[in-house]
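Please fill in the sequence for the structure shown.

STRUCTURE ENCODING:
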């Protein structure tokens, strides 16, 4: 791995993200559409988002209100 790649991975990790899938409006919309299946398994909105994109964010992960979680995602990740 190059120095540049290592620095990018460290920066992503610092912000609680990994390179699992790039977070774009399109990938968010894809996940949002498929969230219903995670909801049926009992996952919270933010919990599903964090798991899908490989994000560590305890505030979002444990948020129970879907609208607040969505606003948080929009503000901090998109």
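FILLED IN BY: designer on duty
SEQUENCE:
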């Amino acid at each position: 791995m190059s120095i540049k790649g290592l620095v990018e991975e460290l920066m992503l990790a610092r912000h609680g993200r990994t390179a699992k899938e790039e977070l774009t409006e399109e990938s968010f919309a894809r996940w949002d559409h498929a969230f219903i299946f995670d909801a049926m398994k009992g996952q919270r909105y933010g919990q599903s988002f964090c798991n899908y994109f490989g994000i560590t964010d305890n505030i979002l992960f444990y948020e129970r209100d879907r609208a607040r979680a969505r606003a948080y995602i929009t503000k901090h990740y998109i």
